[in-house]
Amino acid sequence: MTIHYQIHRIKPNVFLVVVPKEYDRSMLFLRVQEYSESPNPKIRGQSFDILDFIEWYTHENQGNFTYADDWNGFNLSYKTASECYNKLPEKFVTKYDRVFMQILRQITKSLASLPREEAKKAYIIGADSTNSVTAHHEVYHAYYFTDPKYRSHANAMLKKHVPAKLYHKLRKNLTRIGYLDQPFTIQNEMQAYLRGRDWNHPDLLVGVTKETLRRVHRNFAESMKHFR
Q1: Which phi and psi (to 5°) does residue 29 adopt?
Q2: What pLDDT does residue 85 have?
Q3: Would strands 123-127 and 14-18 be described as parallel, antiparallel, or unpaired?
Q4: Which residues neighbour 171 within 8 Å (Cβ) at sequence distance 6 or greater?
Q5: Domain residue spans in the chain?
Q6: What pLDDT, on the 0 to 100 scale, is given for residue 228?
Q7: 30-42, pLDDT tens digit by residue?
């Protein structure tokens, strides 16, 4: 099995892994992404058998394993990915895991030249190209995690531009999609969607008019435009 990927260093401590094939991308990132923030406590932070995950995910999705259709982009800290693989038993290692471990080794080598504190905040994102809607969405996640000034401003602008009732609806929609219902995750996802070109994601519009979300998107994106 050959998985084609390229690693792009878009900031000193932010790495974009481009995997053109959707299925390969989703299976490559599945373990680390679910380890990072799965809504299932038996998966999140745990070493797990991929077959057990497939069984659970299939049960949660009306008997279909739709992971590759459900998730196009990925984002998590380098620290979390390293932790995930450092404790993963050999019996659970798949061919996709071996490729991701290879990616981690390449990133680790690149981080060696950075100051320790900057390297500790390193972030990994996955997308289909360097300039797609998905790539931009994931880059905003990287900014939110690695840049305290960006995160502080984004949180303040969410409070300013997203009324409480709308925030509650969007939070409900995000958890329905499958995101972990924790403040950091919800705010991170909300700012990435509202700033990005995927602000009108169908699942985000449940119970929300397109006109309302378009107005909030424009105001929020405008307030964030000085962050590149």
Answers
A1: -95, -10
A2: 98
A3: parallel
A4: 181, 186, 190
A5: 6-144, 148-223
A6: 74
A7: 999 999 999 999 9
pLDDT tens digits, 155-166:
999 999 999 999
Distance CA 75, CA 123 (A): 7
By the 8 A CB rule, do 228 and 150 touch?
no
Task: Using alpha carbons, list the distances in angstroms from residue 224 to 47, 130, 189, 201.
Answer: 37, 21, 15, 20
Interatomic CA distance for residues 31 and 71, integer angstroms: 13
**8 A C-beta contact, residue 5 and residue 19:** yes
3-state class of 74 per DSSP?
strand
CA distance 19 to 5: 5
pTM of the model: 0.94
Residue-wise DSSP of 3-60: ---EEEEEETTEEEEE--SHHHHHHHHHHHHHHHH-S-TTTTTS---HHHHHHHHHHH
Q: What is the pLDDT of residues 59-111, one digit of tens each?
A: 999 999 999 999 999 999 999 999 999 999 999 999 999 999 999 999 999 99
Strand partners of residue 127: 18
Buried b (16+ CB within 10 A) or exposed e, 105-120: eebeebbeeeeeeebe
